[in-house]
Amino acid sequence: MTTTRSSAELIHAESAVLAHNYHPLPVVVARAEGVWVEDVEGRRYLDMLAGYSALNFGHRHPALIEAAHRQLDRLTLTSRAFHHELLAGFAEELAALTGLEMTLPMNTGAEAVESAVKVARKWAYEVKGVPRDRATIVVAEDNFHGRTTTIVGFSTDPVARDGFGPFTPGFRVVPYNDLPALREAVDETTAAVLLEPVQGEAGVVIPDEGYLAGVREATRAAGALFIADEIQSGLGRTGTTLAVEHEGVRPDAVLLGKALGGGIVPVSAVVATREVLGVLRPGEHGSTFGGNPLAAAVGSAVVALLRTGEYQRRAAGLGAVLRDGLAALVGRGVTGFRCRGLWAGVDVDPAIGTGREIGERLLAEGVLVKDTHGSTIRLAPPLTITPEELAWALGRLAAVLER
Ligand SMILES: Cc1ncc(COP(=O)(O)O)c(C=O)c1O
């Protein structure tokens, strides 16, 4: 269905009938292909956000669209009351991709996190022997794991938390990238340490070399699980399939989402060892849509793209271009940046504008980005972007900062 209303009319209409839990940039997207999107007036923009990494393979990647079409014509939903022919293969592929063993399929990222919290607690009681209802989970300051009441309960962002209590107990918050604090917090009640290997929403915060390996060591020593939330960092974004690979670390559980659905359907998963996911028995957890045939078809096609290694290589190679381009802007409007693979948090001199204002100016230049906190913008283009397109986007950023 297409619309006859203008962007301005649609934005105005939305404000009357949609909850105001977002403050989108004033662009109304009508269609997209690869790294380019087009608004309802036909203006084109280079997408440097890629759905917060849900579009790692670009908009409407032909192989993913084909897999979705094929499945739409065959079978879309069974619920888990019955088996379907694609789920075993999808789970086998996820195990091979991550070096883990079993999958718990869900839909959104937050659901995968919630599921991991439940599973970690059950594991703590049944395997580790933590006294009933005493299990704790250690998380990091400035985390972002989603929006459910349990998850925002252990957020340290007042905007995410305030007004939504009372919250679920059982979480301990430690500073990110601080191994002594983490070691201090982990004890005989600890079910798991739950961390983002790179903190995306916090502004693409990359821990010091050795931190993730240290977390692995500390959790192993304390007999606790290490759960890596790779929902934003995983599936090629940082130049490796998983961001934990930068330190050669294998967690007990990896949470996947966003790009796992190819930008087509919500697909998430807890992928873990047999010891961890083996604690679940029929009736204890579930989801009507989790692991549905359409999701499995698209998810398998995503894994097939990642198996080629091409997207990881692109992210690593183009990441170097991105890093060099941003380094050249330091002192010219950029006060600092953090970059891993094709993913960067860029701190803009507040005198030039807030992140939001920079986003609006870039929009006028034909580039879509999103701010995070204060004057930080984040760049995460589809991994299919060409060096020329990336250079063009960086040129637009330079122009906006100069003005
Ligand atoms: C690291 C991380 N975990 C979880 C989530 C939540 O995912 P969803 O929005 O699909 O619930 C996000 C979303 O930005 C994320 O970045």
Sequence-ordered SSE layout with sheet pairings:
Blueprint lengths: L6 H11 L11 E5 L2 E4 L4 E4 L2 H4 L8 H11 L14 H12 L3 E5 L2 H20 L7 E5 L8 H5 L4 H4 L9 E4 L4 H7 L4 E6 L15 H12 L2 E5 L23 E4 L11 E5 L1 H4 L15 H15 L2 H18 L6 E6 L4 E5 L6 H10 L2 E2 L1 E2 L4 E4 L7 H16 L1
Helix pairs in contact: 3-11, 4-11, 12-14
TL;DR of this structure?
The chain is α/β, with parallel strands linked by helices and 403 residues long. The chain is built from 14 helices and 15 strands.
Q: Would you kindly provide a written description of the structure presented here, covering whatever features stand out?
A:
The structure is a single chain. With 403 residues, the protein is an alpha/beta fold. The chain has two domains: 7-24 and 34-61 and 310-402, Alpha-Beta Complex (Aspartate Aminotransferase, domain 1); 75-307, Aspartate Aminotransferase, domain 2, CATH 3.40.640. The protein has 14 helices and 15 strands. The strands form three sheets. Strands 4-10-9-8-7-5-6 form a seven-stranded mixed β-sheet, sandwiched between helices. Strands 1-2-3-13 form a four-stranded mixed β-sheet. A four-stranded antiparallel β-sheet has the order 11-12-15-14, with helices on one face. A hairpin with a 4-residue loop joins strand 14 and strand 15. The longest helix is centred in the first third of the chain and has 20 residues, at 109-128. The two termini are 40 Å apart. The model has no long low-confidence stretch (mean pLDDT 97). Pyridoxal-5'-phosphate (PLP) binds next to helix 5. This is ornithine aminotransferase. It holds the Pfam family Aminotran_3. GO terms for molecular function: ornithine aminotransferase activity. Its cofactor is pyridoxal 5'-phosphate. It comes from Streptomyces boetiae.
